[in-house]
Amino acid sequence: MRYDVFSIFPDFFVSPLNQTILKRAIQNNIISVNIHDIRDYAEGKHRTTDDYPYGGGSGMVMKVQPIVDAVKDVKSKIGVTTESIKIILTTPQGRTFNQKIAGELAGFKNIMIICGRYEGIDERVKDIICPDEISIGDYVLSGGELPALVIIDAVSRYVPGVLGSESSVEADTFSDGLLKYPQYTRPEEFRGLKVPSVLLSGKHGEIEKWRRSESIRVTLAKRPDLLENAELTEEDKEIIKGSGN
Ligand SMILES: C[S@@+](CC[C@H](N)C(=O)[O-])C[C@H]1O[C@@H](n2cnc3c(N)ncnc32)[C@H](O)[C@@H]1O
Predict the structure, then answer these.
(1) Looking at domain 2-156, does it have CATH number 3.40.50.2000?
(2) 39, CA 20 to 30 Å: which among 18, 160, 190, 224?
(3) Residue of 123, 140, 149 to test ligand 1 pocket, by largest number of atoms within 8 Å of CB
(4) 10 Å Cβ neighbour count for 54?
(5) How many Å lie between the centroid of ligand 1 and the Cα of residue 155?
(6) Which of 172, 176, 212, 223 is catalytic?
(7) pLDDT truncated to tens, each residue of the chain (245 aa)?
């Protein structure tokens, strides 16, 4: 899996990509993350990547030319086909990123991510590149660098070999439409609080049953909206009925 990220602040990515899971995945050549400075593609003596908005108003707008040229250049250098590539524009106006989208994006060999800054980018970038517009939530950040890192992290967890155990991503919260069951580690007792005895029983069938019912209980308590789209067995439905919902 190859990521190409376009930003005017390439240093933003140095530390996050140099830690734990992503660092290991890059070192093991399972993923590669190539950061491109949009400024390198800016024309003119001052290499400006932004300008005043037509029609007036506050702030600056990122220019169309450096972004379009940067994407075109990298695309031709890596020689990707339209089917194998996904071009993402980070924007608070996009569809909201979630675990399902992360799983879908993991099916692409190449992902390009454009990071906006200031008041956003010239609308014509969208007309020319037709990117998948993605938001990481209903709030406004100062730039697309954090959203790009969020997307890279969540998508990479689906790439085989990135996580120590491939089953981990399947057991994550949201993967089966439910929140994850509570987890415990040593000691067995801390300040009078004991680990549920079933987890110490060694009975795998019972542990699985407990985890499923706890998943449902936690989802009901914290995110009941998720249950509407979750795949539930008859046994799951009984648990929900038994809880009075
Ligand atoms: C300050 S924001 C621009 C917001 C724009 N003025 C608006 O109201 O829609 C600058 C850049 O940050 C990124 N950004 C901000 N919030 C985001 C979010 N929730 N999800 C994804 N990207 C975001 C986008 O790349 C955006 O172009």
Answers:
(1) no
(2) 18
(3) 140
(4) 8
(5) 20
(6) 172
(7) 999 999 999 999 999 999 999 999 999 999 999 999 999 999 999 999 999 999 999 999 999 999 999 999 999 999 987 788 999 999 999 999 999 999 999 999 999 999 999 999 999 999 999 999 999 999 999 999 999 999 999 999 999 999 987 668 888 888 889 999 999 999 999 999 999 999 999 999 999 999 999 999 999 999 999 999 999 999 999 999 988 76
